[in-house]
Amino acid sequence: MPAPYELVREELDQLLAGEPAYRSRQVWESLHLRVQRPEEMTELPESLRATLAAAFPPALREVSCQSADEGQTTKWLWSLHDGSRVETVLMHYPDRVTVCVSTQAGCAMACQFCATGQAGFQRHLSEGEIVEQVAVAMRAARPRRLSNVVFMGMGEPLANYDRVWSAVTRLHGEMGLSARHLTLSTVGLVPGIRRLAAETLPVNLAVSLHAANDRLRDVLVPINRRYPLGLLAEACDEYVKATGRRLSIEWAMIHDVNDQGNDAGELAQFARPLGAHVNLIPLNPTPGYAVVGSSAARVRRFRDQLEALGVNATVRVTRGADIDAACGQLAASVTLSRKGRGG
Ligand code: SAH
Questions:
Q1: Are 66 and 197 contained in the same domain?
Q2: Residue 132: inside a domain
Q3: pLDDT tens by residue, 272-313
Q4: Shared-domain flag, residues 69 and 163
Q5: Cα of 2 to ligand 1 centre, how many Å?
């Protein structure tokens, strides 16, 4: 049985072939524009509502829903049809409401300091599973309007390119989200960045750099051995030239590993020619990485060093650390066993 967001428009047309001609569009718009569940579609006859609700159970079954930051951050743990588990995080800010979605169950990239990477890869998420995370967040954000989607949850979006891109297209075309408010984050998969450069929809790209010399990056972000910094810089340059969009660079600040003056110098050399903006994220603790994050004073010093070298940098405020919802902490199974929660 498909979940509602697994259907493409033509499939819905076929399924509702026996109904009046306007029904399919009505249901499609209820799903995407009004973000309703079938049982809430009160404009439909009650029998059809019940049939749809029975035929299309949601793809995401809630295992837990936790809130932090005085209700400004919510994290869901979902169970999927095959028992895989993924997480979604909704964040309210004064000027925007952002959802952070997962694109894979687990991740194959094995970045040392990332809880998802420590847990390994299970499978790609489908287009519908990605879109439904956004739909749930839209509903939960009410009465505010969900404005931003960041593909920074579990998984590597560019390793699941086709499904992620179909989801992006649907969020933009059917659910009214602006392409400029959609951000894909990558560990640096060069072929994916090149594909993105050729797309016409101008989404944002963030590259998780964390080290700007190959020796260190090979260790922190192992995919660097396949796509070293030289190749990555070329692909980023192609993206910036082709799209005219500003590139973001993510840099998790790790005490004594990548937070010194020489690190700032190397980062500036990478970032400046690309005109990239740097986001500094204090490293969040994860079970499999014993190194600690940089102190607030070191993060500030690093930012000042970058600014002095002509690179714009922002220190990201961590959200949801106490519910393991912060960057790099999403690891459904680890969370469960460590905290003893269950579904
Ligand atoms: N695979 C994609 C998207 C998911 S990770 C990517 O790597 O970009 C989202 C961001 O969180 C990345 O920048 C990632 O490097 C960062 N991150 C991972 N673990 C972290 C940790 N423990 N502390 C802070 N940031 C972390």
A1: yes
A2: yes
A3: 999 999 999 999 988 888 889 999 999 999 999 999 999 999
A4: yes
A5: 31
Pocket lining: 116 vs ligand 1, CB cutoff 6 Å: no
Domain co-membership, 294 together with 147: yes
Q: Is the CB of 293 under 6 A from ligand 1?
A: no
> Which ligand 1 atom lies nearest to the CA of residue 286?
22
Is residue 132 in contact with ligand 1, taking CB distance under 6 Å?
no
Q: Answer whether 160 contacts ligand 1 (Cβ < 6 A).
A: no
CB 328 within 8 A of CB 113: yes
Do residues 343 and 64 make contact, with C-beta atoms less than 8 angstroms apart? yes
Tell me, what CATH number does 40's domain have? 1.10.150.530
Which ligand 1 atom is at minimum distance from the Cα of 329?
22
Regarding the beta carbon of 66 and ligand 1, being less than 6 Å apart is answered: no
Residues 175 and 278 in one domain: yes
pTM check: above 0.70: yes
- pLDDT 10s digits, 45-98: 999 999 999 888 899 999 999 999 988 999 999 999 999 999 999 999 999 999
Query: What residue owns the CA closest to ligand 1's atom 1?
Result: 156
**Is residue 76 within 8 Å of residue 102, measured between CB atoms?**
no
Residues of the domain holding 23: 4-55
Query: Ligand 1, closest atom to CA 186?
Result: 8
